[in-house]
Amino acid sequence: MMDSVMRNWKKLLNESGFNRIMQILTGNLPAVDTIAFITAANPYGEPLGAKDNIARNKDLASWLRERGLGFIRIRGRFGGPEKSFIVNNITKEETIAAGKRFEQESVIWGEKTFDDKGDPTGFEFYYIEGDNIVQTRNIVLSGEEVEDREDFYSQERQSAGRKFLIPFFDADYEIETTDETNNYSHIRALTTSEKEDHKDIVGEINHRIRLSLEQSRTPKSRWHHRKILQMRLRELKNKL
Predict the structure, then answer these.
(1) By the 8 A CB rule, do 20 and 35 touch?
(2) Is residue 180 in some structural domain?
(3) Pick from 5, 88, 112, 117: CA 20 to 30 A from residue 65's CA?
(4) How far apart are CA 102 and CA 54, in angstroms?
(5) Do 208 and 130 belong to one domain?
(6) Is the pLDDT of residue 73 over 60?
(7) Strands 153-156 vs 132-137: parallel, antiparallel or unpaired
(8) 15: domain range?
(9) 222 and 123 within one domain
(10) Given this model, what pLDDT does residue 175 score?
């Protein structure tokens, strides 16, 4: 009898925690107008041991508290286990500063959106590398399809926590229409003048190829660079 009660209580805690997260991310919690997803683990894609990552996230939690920022601890898998924070009512500038302070290749920041009547319509999320917005999404996925995922998802902190994700780099959820049917990996050889005209993006492509092949990087880091590499290849093909 007691085991059954405890199982039901844990299920209730899981459900309530997940529901609160989804209320925040869908814009249905009046007290939260901006959010960020931040971790301090694995600086610049360098895999660290659990003890070091725990210490780094403890420092991040202190950094957030010093600024009066509330947060929810979450976990997930991005090529390996990762613990991170959903931070409430943080500015984009503070999010970028935290990413730099804790040596992260990317952070996610979101702001609540409103209709003409001033009613909330959801959140718009920004995938940020350094100071630059790489991609934007306006949807959070959960449910059976996400629960079946074995990698690249977030979930609430409880041991049986339900999963969710923001579908960055997924063509089915592009906000701006792009021709995703283009086979951007098949780009013809560039002439000397084309290489010079597009030297910045060609240089970035070559740099990200090298980073995506480094076995010393975390799987999340290699995924990060491969996905942005695909975007830059598509941009280059559209310029030719």
Answers:
(1) no
(2) no
(3) 112
(4) 13
(5) no
(6) yes
(7) unpaired
(8) 2-173
(9) no
(10) 63
Please state the rounded mean pLDDT for residues 210-220: 93
Look at residue 16 in the predicted model and tell me its pLDDT. Answer: 59
User: Which two three-digit tokens encode residue 80?
Assistant: 């390996």
Q: State the amino acid at position 223 in one-letter form.
A: W
- CB distance 164 to 141 below 8 Å: yes
Instruction: Judge whether 154 and 75 are in contact, CB under 8 Å.
Output: yes
Alpha helices in the chain (DSSP H): 2-25, 50-66, 92-101, 144-147, 192-197, 199-212, 219-239
Structure tokens at 3: 């085991």
- Tokens linked to 75: 């976990």
* Domain total of the chain: 2
Task: Indicate the DSSP class of residue 163.
Answer: E
pLDDT tens readout for residues 144-194: 989 999 999 999 887 678 999 999 998 888 765 344 444 444 567 788 888
Residues 74 and 21: their CA atoms lie apart, in Å, by 10
Q: Categorize the per-residue pLDDT at 3 as very low, low, confident or very high, splitting at 50, 70 and 90.
A: low
